[in-house]
Structure formats: C-alpha cells, structure tokens
Amino acid sequence: MSLTTTASKIDRLAQLTARTETASGASLWREAMRRMRASKMAIIGAVIIAGFVLLAVIGPWIAPYSPTDQTWRGEVFSNRGEFVGARAENWFGLDHLGRDLFSRMLVGARQTLLVGVVSMLIGLLIGAFVGIVSGAAVTLGGKTGRRIDDAIMRVTDILLALPSLLLAVSVAAVMGQSLTTVMIAVGVVQIPVFARLLRGSMLAQGGSDYVLAARSLGIRKRRIVLTQILPNSLSPVIVQATLSLATAIIEAAALSYLGLGNPDPAVPEWGVMLSAAQRFFDNEPMMSMYPAVGIVITALGFTLLGEAMREALDPKLRG
Amino acid sequence: MLRLVVRRLLQLIPTLLGLSVLLFIWLNRLPGGPASAILGERATEADVARINRALGLDQPIYVQYGRFLKRLLDLDLGTSVQTGQPVWDEFVLRFPATVELSVAAMLIATAVGIPLGYIAARKRGGWIDVASVSGSLVGICIPVFFLAQLLKAAFGDIFGTFGRQSTGIDATSVTGFAVLDGVLTGEFDAAWDALMHLVLPGIALATIPLAVIVRMTRASVLEVLGEDYVRTAESKGLERKVVRGRHVLRNALLPVVTAIGLLTGSLLSGAVLTESVFTFGGIGSFIRTAIDARDYPVLVGFIMFIAMIYVLINMLVDLAYSVIDPRVRVH
Amino acid sequence: MPLLTVDELTVTFGGRGRKDVRAVNGVSFDVDQGQVVGLVGESGCGKSVTSLALMGLLPSKGVTLGGRAELDGTNLLSLTPSKMRDLRGRDMAMIFQDPLSSLNPVVPVGVQVTEILQRHRGLKGEAARKEAAHLLDRVGIPDPTRRLKEYPHQLSGGMRQRALIAMAVACAPRLLIADEPTTALDVTIQAQILELLKELVDQEGTALLMITHDLGVVAGLCDQVNVLYAGKVVESAGRRELFAHPTHPYTHGLLGSIPRLDAPRGEPLHPIRGSINDQIAWADGCAFAPRCDRYEMECLTGTPELTEPRAAGHHARCANPVLATTEVPA
Question: C92 vs chain A: nearest CA distance in angstroms?
Fold first, then answer.
C-alpha cells in the first residue's frame, strides 16, 4: 500500500467522521446556557426582567411629573368618588390624592426592584451562610458536626413551621413600620429556605463519586468542601434566588396590604400602591390594575427565568 | 403504627419548645415590652409598673420564661386586647369557619389540580399542557388579596359579597361548621347559603395550592411515565386504565400527597388575606384586625396555634405516606 | 416458516426541531419456533431499540418505524395499539434488564402476576392467586404464597428477576424477548437465571430472543447469533461457526478483547479502539471503519453488502473480512 493511498484513506475517514461528530464534553453550565437560549420560557423571562430593570434605572428620569405632585388634588376631591380616568395629560389617570399614576408607576419600579433584591439578598446571604456551616459541619465534623447540624436544622424547622406572612408580621411588629422592616421581614422568611436548600445540596454532593475520588487522592476534606462540594452545590441556590425575587415582591405587597408596609407616601412602590388602591377598588379598579399588572408581570419574569434555569440544570431532563 | 404516632408526637416537643423560646424573646423585644402590648400604646408609667409587677417582669428572666411556658401549657394564651375575651376562646369560636374555608380550598385545588396535571403530562406540549403550566405560573404571581378582590368584583353578585354572618338567614349552630350544621339540622337553605359563600374565598385561597399541585402532578406523572415498571406493565399488554391507575397514578401521587399536606399548613397564611377581603368570619379576619390593633396576645397565641397545627398536619402526612407507600413501612 | 421474521427494520428518532437519529438501520433476522437467537452488540448499537420496536413499546410520537416485522404472519408494525395490547403478554413477552426498577414498588408482587392472568387468561380471585403461586413456584421462588403478598423491595435481586420471568411466561407466549436479563445481577445469580431461561425454553418450546452484550451468555445459550453494529447486522451465524470463525473485524475484535485464562501470561488483550461514538454514516461507508484496523478505501464508499464470504449461512457485512483462522487472537 502506497503512502499516498494511506494518507487519502485517513483524510477521507476524517472527513466522514466529522459529519457525524456528536457534541460532547460541554461543561454543565455551558450546556445549561445552551438549553436556556433554546427555551422560550427563559427568553420571555429575561426580556421581562431586562425591561423591568431598565424601567427601575431610567423610570424617575422619564416620569412626566413628580410622583408626589398633588396638582390635581382639587379635581379628585370635587367629584367625590368619581375618579378621573386616563386622559391626555395623565395617561393612567390620577390616584386618590390627585397624583399622576403613570409617573408613580415609573418611579415606583425602582423601589419595587430594591425591595425584591434586598429581601432576596438578606435571605440568600444569611441562609447560605447557615447552610454552609451546617453542610460543612456534617461533612467535616464527625459527631460534633452532626450535633451542630442537628441544632441548626431544628431551628430552621421551627421557622419553616411558621406561615411566612406571620413570621414577617412578627418581625414587623418588633421593628416598627418602614420599608427596611418590610425588606428584613420578607428576607427573614427566606433564610430557612436557602439554608435547607444549600445544606441538602452539599450533602448530596458530598456523597458523590468525585468527592470520594478527591478524598482518595489525599486532598484535605476542608479543601474538598470549599473547592469541590460548595461550587457544585450552588446551582439550586441560584435558581431559588431568582424565584425568591418574585415571591419577595409579592410578599412585600401582602405586608403592605396588612398595613405593615412603608408608611411614607412620598416613595411610591408598586406593592404599597396596590394595597392603597384596594380601598377604592369598587369605584376605580384601574387604580389597582396598573400596580397589580406591574407586579404580576415582574414576578412572572423572575419565575419564568428561575424555572427555565431549574429545567436547564436538571440532569434528569438532559437528553 | 401506634409507635410511629407516639414517636412523631415526641418529636413535636422540641419544636414547640424552641418556638416558645422564640416567641418569648419576641414578646420581650416588642417596642415597650409586654406591658404596652397588653395595655396598648397609651399606657401611663404607673400602669406599666403595675403590670410589670403583676406579670412578674421584675423577676429573673428564666422565671419569666417558666411562667410563660406554664401558661402556654394551660392553653392560657392571654386575653385579647380587642375583645377582652380569652384568646383561646376566640380561636375556638372562629376556627371552624377557617377550617371550612381551608377544606373548600384544598378540595378545589386537588379536584382540579390532579386531573389537570395528569392530562398536561399525558398530552405534553399540547394546548392543555401549555395552558395549565402558564396558568399556574401566573397563578403564583398574583397577590392573593388582589385576586380575591377581583373575584369579588366579578362574581360577587352571584355568590354574595360578604361573609355568611351578614346574610340574615337564621341558622342553628351545632358544630360551628356552617355547611355541616345546615345539613345536620335540616336547614338546607342555610347550608346552601354557607356553601355559596365558600365559593369565591375558596377559589381565591385555592389558587396557590392549585398551581403547586398542577405542576407537581405534571412533573411527577412525567417522571413515572418514564419508569421501567410502566414499560413492564405495558409489555404485559394490560388494559390502558390498569396501566394508568395502578401503575402510573398510584406512584405519581405519592409526592403530591406530601405536597398537599404541606400546602394545607401554609393555607392559613393565605386565609388571613382572603378572609379579610371577603370579611369572612374566621380566624383570618380576626388576625387581620389583631394586626391592625397590635393585639399581641392574639398574635402570639395564633403563632403557637398554627405551629401546632402545622406539625400535626406534617405528622398526618407522614402517617398517610406510610400507609400508601409500602417502602416506608419497613423502615 | 420462521416464527418471527424481521426484515429491514428501521427505527428513526426525530421530532420538531431535532435532527433525526436512525437508531436501527435496516436490521433483518429470523427466529424459528423454539430457537434461541442472540442479538449482540455494544450499548448504543440499537439492540434494545429493536426489541422495544418489536414489542410496540416505543413512544408513538417522534418515532418512525420502517421495514417489516412479522410474528406468525402478523405484521407487528402495522397493528393498531389495542390489537398490539392483546398480543403483548399473551403471544410475546419481554424480560427487562433491571429487575428492581422494572417492578412497581407500591404494588404487591402477587397483584403484578395476577393482573396479567386476569388480562389474558380471564383468571380471577382465588384461581388467579393459585396460578400465580404455581408460576412463582415454577420459576424457583420458595414459599410462593407468602411472596405473593410481599412488595418488590422485600425480594432479593435474583428473586425479583424470577418474578419478572414468571410474569413473562404466565400466558405461555410463543416468543420471549430478554433484554440483558442478567446484567444487573450478581454473577452467581446470573448463572441461575440463565439456567432457568434455558429450562423454560426447552420445556415449553418457546422461542427466545436474547439481547446482550455478553458473549459468555451467547456462548452458553444461543443457537443463532446476530452481531449488531450502529443499527445494522454486521455478522450472522450459528453459535459454533461464529465463535470458531469470527469473520467481521468487529466480531473478531469483540472475541479478541475478552481476557482468557488459557492465554499465555503477559499476552496483551486486544481491545477495539475508540467507542461507538466514533462512526461514520452507513450511507458513506462502513460505520465501523474508524475503529477498524483493516479498513480500505473501498470501505469508505457506500454501505457494504451482507455476503457469505466464508461459508453458506454465515453472513458478514465487510469488504475486507477476516478469513484466515490463524488470525484469531489469543
């Protein structure tokens, strides 16, 4: 057999093999990203979130009026119970104090985002810390570790046993009425959720083969926990963080409705606006509708993205 | 079985103890302390001092906690600031209405959620699937109180806007469960009326559990459909209904049962919001006014009460699970 | 006439937005009454898909079937789902790989046996229970009446597979398909289960289609062997002929990669290099070419034909077959 035929044989083979090459070896996250881009849910969610964040950033600048400006107060009071609906100078109409609803919606987006993000971060940071301590204690600590973990899990059990709203009410009762209270109250509710999730995820990872492999290579346990187990346990936490942005915004609205929200009328926030509008629901349903639709769409955006992420990361659904 | 019950009841104790410690700390952290919690915000200094002595707040902290715990064990949850009645009595009076509402909501959620989730999974990607998945996503994103308000505005004329106390129908109370009472005493108009008044709040309260049940059932059925034992059942040529009932549903519903139990516990949160929109005469409405009035003894009592119910429901779910899943029985 | 005739069977997976994948690419073989036929190959070669296609157990959506598969003159591929349901479990039955996951965990073993008796033999109540106990006894499960009330997790691995076999033979089917029935079991149990299958086949005259990657199983059980590669039969012969004279380089490689105790110490193994992922499309040439030591330019032009290069009845799909006996390694 001559050299040239051998070379052409190899070339031909390489050419034919390339045609049937299957994609493999993509990392978990790259694979997840690929699936996210193909998911309608993820795209819709991301678009909604991008729009919402954009609104939160530029909202106060593009608002036609000041959110606290009560220019049309007289008009509202003169036709008692008759609300002024949408019109050329007030696109969404007026609220009960004669303020421009469109401007309040635009400015309120920022507060709403703030409430969601800060509450989520409170829950995430404290919860993740507790979860890491618990998860690491079990993995590293033998008997004492298990005791520490047991104690922590008992406390989170108790917190989980409380209806989230009442937990938030209790926090609000101690701290008084303010936006900070709402954020802390809503965040505290999420702490046990994040803690349990991260701990569970770490324990599941701790039992997997690559940890055993790392250990058999003589890598120290502490190092394995920090460099192997923890990074691999984070994906459910990230999913939960996205989803809890949605619940935080909804819970904050509920707290406002129970009269525990931000009492400062100068700072518009969708949840506060929605609960304030409930009193006037029978006469002016649109006043509730704008903030309600804002909240639902925003919450939906985070939920869609979170769910799409969960699906993309689920190894069972990968095919 | 009995041993499992006893063990679960014993496990209850540390949870409730821990909770009582948290509540005790919470009460002491309240602005103005328990004295102003009892007297309200307009208490004079002298009143506060008197109450503090009376409550033993001059005693060491562990003595105070001991007393607090003893009162809880005696089911002495204190006196409501709003009504002046013992908190426990207020609860017992109002609890049946809330139970009725929660049962109605759970019935709606399971009766609609399980079939819908099942069909969605069977016809994956079909319009029912797409509709129920997106519907449940929207469902969990709507604030409950707003949905209740919407339902009230849209259908209030048909079902009656306000709680059943205001309907003027003369009903005899036997058990406190209005629908049941009506049936028991033969006052079917009262039973019907009570039932009608359950519809809207029931739907509002059912939204979130419904959304969760639909999605859980769907995911669970999808998972079970891919199981080897379903393929085995098919390979035996069994009738479709046997494959679906005995092999798919019986397995797929196991996780859903757990979820239903947990959701029942969290329904009470939603009840506070829903009941206050519909001025429904249950515990929820009462708690709503207690929050407004800073009626702390009621809130403390309610939290203990709910925690107990929650843990009890969890126990029942575990027991139910051990009945329907043979694998659990052995352990 | 053979009991089962499979002719140019193709199975294509595809669906909206996804590239079509042809898992079975024109497979043909026969199974005679009472014969044990092996379908051998690596995982991913299409052997399990073939068996599921025959049983009508592939999902109806996203799967396209082609070719012909006849059981006793009935075309299995064109039967209505309900006719197929009547056939399954009665005329043809299947035994699966993992006995634990193949049994419903929340239904007693007894019910899982009686339900098939009720479906196809109309047995109910006590009669069904009696027959079920008799079946369990026949597949070698001791104390069958007690076992009927137990759940799968209470049985040992071997007993679970016996229970599954009991279900499969409950209606005395003419064709039994066993998909890697011993892979998930301990070695000692494997031998027992194979022994049981052999016994049942001998006693009942049931034909058995044995799907496996284990050449040991083939050597012990099969009359006729079909070797599958990338969805096509590449070699087909009687057991003795195949083991004595493997003709396709793939079969040759499979036999060469088995460690042998009688080989001289230090003798290297001869693994087939690469994996089943390294392949080219059959339309372009021989799918095995990228892993083959013997491929030539003509292997890369069009699908090789199934020929009889060595002896009548010994088919191989290769342009450059192994013909000299001396080349058998080890």
Answer: 30
Which among A8, A16, A24 has CB closest to C285? Answer: A16
H-assigned helices in chain A: 3-19, 28-38, 40-62, 73-78, 101-140, 142-161, 164-175, 179-206, 209-216, 221-224, 230-257, 270-278, 285-313
Q: Provide the token pair at B185.
A: 């005493």
- Does C119 sit within 8 Å of B237, measured CB to CB? yes
- The answer for C 120-159 residues in CB contact with B (under 8 A) is 120, 151, 153-154
Question: How many folded domains does chain A comprise?
Answer: 1
Q: Write down all domains in chain C, each with its CATH number in brackets.
A: 4-227 (3.40.50.300), 237-316 (no CATH)
Given pLDDT bands bounded at 50, 70 and 90, which one contains residue B164? very low
Q: How close is the nearest chain A Cα to the Cα of C300, in Å?
A: 7
A22 and C CB contact within 8 Å: yes
**Which residues does residue C316 pair with via DSSP β-bridges, in sequence order?**
C235, C307
What is the token pair recorded at C94? 């299947």
Beta partners for residue C66, in sequence order: C10
Compute chain A's Rg from CA coordinates: 26
Establish if A9 belongs to a structural domain. Answer: no
What distance in Å separates residue C15's CA from the closest CA in chain A? 13
Judged by CB atoms closer than 8 Å, whether chains meet at C93 and B235 is answered as yes
Identify the closest residue of chain B to C168 by CA–CA distance.
B236
Structure tokens belonging to residue A19: 């045609």
**Interacting residues of A200 by C-beta distance below 8 A, sequence separation 6+:** none
* φ/ψ of residue C93, rounded to 5: -135, 165
Reported as a single tens digit per residue, the pLDDT across C138-181 is: 888 899 999 999 999 999 888 999 899 999 988 889 999 999 88
Residue A239 lies in a domain: yes
Number of residues assigned to chain B = 331
Q: How far apart are CA A115 and CA A146, in angstroms?
A: 36
Q: Kindly report, residue by residue over C72-127, the tens digit of the pLDDT.
A: 888 988 888 899 999 998 999 999 988 889 999 999 999 999 999 999 988 888 89
Q: Which helix (H) or strand (E) holds B201?
A: helix B188-225
Q: What is the mean pLDDT of chain A?
A: 81
**CA closest to A253 among chain B residues:** B143
- B116 Cα to chain C: minimum distance (Å): 21
Q: Residue A135 is part of a domain; what is its CATH number? A: 1.10.3720.10
Q: Does B21 touch chain A (CB under 8 A)?
A: no
Q: Is the dihedral of CA C230, C232, C237, C241 positive or negative?
A: negative
Q: Is ipTM > 0.85 here?
A: yes
H helix count then E strand count, chain B: 15, 0
pLDDT at A23: 43
Chain B partners within 8 Å of C164 (Cβ): 232
Question: CA dihedral defined by B61, B63, B68, B71, rounded to 10 degrees?
Answer: -170
Q: Which domain holds residue A218?
A: 27-77+86-317
Contact yes or no for A274/B143 (Cβ under 8 A)? yes
* Interchain contact B223–C (C-beta under 8 A): no
Residues B2-36 pLDDT 10s: 777 787 777 777 777 887 888 888 777 776 665 66
Q: Beta strands C314-316 and C232-238: pairing type?
A: antiparallel
User: Is A64 a domain residue?
Assistant: yes
* Residue B308 touches partner A, C-beta closer than 8 Å: no
Classify residue A3: in a domain, yes or no.
Answer: no
B97-126, pLDDT tens digit by residue?
A: 888 888 899 999 999 999 999 999 988 888
Least Cα distance to C46 among C95, C7, C12 occurs for C12
In this predicted structure, the answer to whether residue B331 has a pLDDT above a threshold of 60 is: no
Query: How far apart are the C-alpha atoms of B314 and B316, rounded to whole Å?
Result: 5
pLDDT at A24 (0 to 100): 43
Cα–Cα distance, C205 to C199 (Å, whole number): 10
Chain centroid to Cα B325, Å, comes to: 25
Q: Which residues of A touch B153 (CB under 8 A)?
A: 281-282, 285
